[in-house]
Amino acid sequence: MPAFLNRRRPPPEVDSDSPDADLLAAVAAGRVEALRLLHTRHAPWLRARLARRCVDPDAVDDAIQDTFVAVWRDAHRYRSSRGEAGGWLWTIASRRLISALRRRGGRWLGGDLPGEDARTVQSAEDVVLLGVEHGDLGIAISRLSPELRAAIQATVLDGLTTREAARLLGIPEGTVKTRVMRAKAQLREYLV
Question: For the RNA polymerase sigma-70 region domain, which residue ranges apply (predicted)?
């Protein structure tokens, strides 16, 4: 192979305004400051979304830590042509949370944790989300277009701010607001 084909371009200089793809390229090249910037940018919304799915803060923290360890190891696998970095990070984080919960669940075979009451009560959020998922609202949400459904999921169900949702979905904040407004209007029609 000719030497010029084997050379890689050095990663771009990164700062807090660098796009995620540049940060991931720098992480793949072993630049710790790029990983720190990615963590600062993405860990808060990842934590918020994971906390909506798991009430155990330690499991959420483990998942966040494992996510960024995986990013450090596998940043070279990220391809910007496949989608936004936020989506890639969310996929890793959600899988890491599942793994963390399985590890915790696997420790106690055949019973409850020592000292815990055997009765388990669902949180109010779990009850509401079950109703959303399997009730009339869930059916109405499933009728929305994928773009509107994603905006409602991110802002209303996951509780992200418009800015966080825009970053996650890779669209401008104004577009998120418009999609949420349109989704709510359609949901009102479906639920009448």
Answer: 39-105
11-106 under CATH 3.50.50.60, yes or no: no
Query: For residue 22, what are the contacts with CB-CB under 8 A and spacing of at least 6?
Result: 11, 12, 14, 34
Domain 122-192 has CATH 3.40.50.2300: no
Q: How is residue 46 written in tokens?
A: 């990842």
Domain boundaries, the chain: 11-106, 122-192
pLDDT tens-digit map of 6-39: 456 666 788 888 888 889 989 999 999 999 999 9
Report field, pTM of the whole predicted structure over 0.85: no
Tokens of 7: 């050379």
Q: Which amino acid is at 35?
A: L
How far apart (Å, rounded) are the C-alpha atoms in residues 7 and 158? Answer: 43
For 38-70, the pLDDT digits (tens) are 999 999 989 988 887 787 888 889 999 999 999
**How many residues are listed for the chain in this entry?**
192
Determine if residue 131 is left, alpha or beta; phi over 0 gives left, psi from -120 to 50 gives alpha, anything else beta.
Answer: alpha
Q: How many beta carbons lie within 10 A of that of residue 4, not counting itself? A: 6
Q: Cα separation of 44 and 50, whole Å?
A: 10
Task: Give the N- to C-terminal CA distance of the chain in Å, as an integer.
Answer: 66
